[in-house]
Amino acid sequence: MFEDFLEKNTTRFENSLKEILSDLRKDYENFWQEMMGNLTKKKLELEQTIKRTEAEKENKSKEVMLLSQDLVKLTEARKKEEERLKKYEIQQQEILNKIIEIEEKEKKSEEMAEIIKEKEIELLKKEDQVKLEVALLEERQRELKHIWEKVHPTQRG
Hints:
Layout: H1 2-67, H2 72-151
Helix pairs in contact: 1-2
């Protein structure tokens, strides 16, 4: 009787643990999908911004060339300098984007760590409760055994 009860509570505890772990896995998968969706969206936005920037640059270069042939040498030097600066700006923007991405990942990781910590606390509380119930059942079993032995004494040699 006690063993059935213990087995049932143990099974229930194991099922609770499995459900919690399943929920954690689902939360992580949802978090990952959301993060990848956001990164894809940001990538598309950056590609559009780069295309607009390149188009604007081409238009400005044409206007400068048309203004005066006397400024051709100056325009070429300016263009070379712009390309060099553009590379630095792109590198700087990439670094800033990576920093933002890392900060977002850290924030999400901290949130997930907090959720996991809360789940661990819940599990520990449930484990303590199960241990307490098992101890109470064992105590009750000892008491019942003692009463049984008093009611039905066995012959001893």
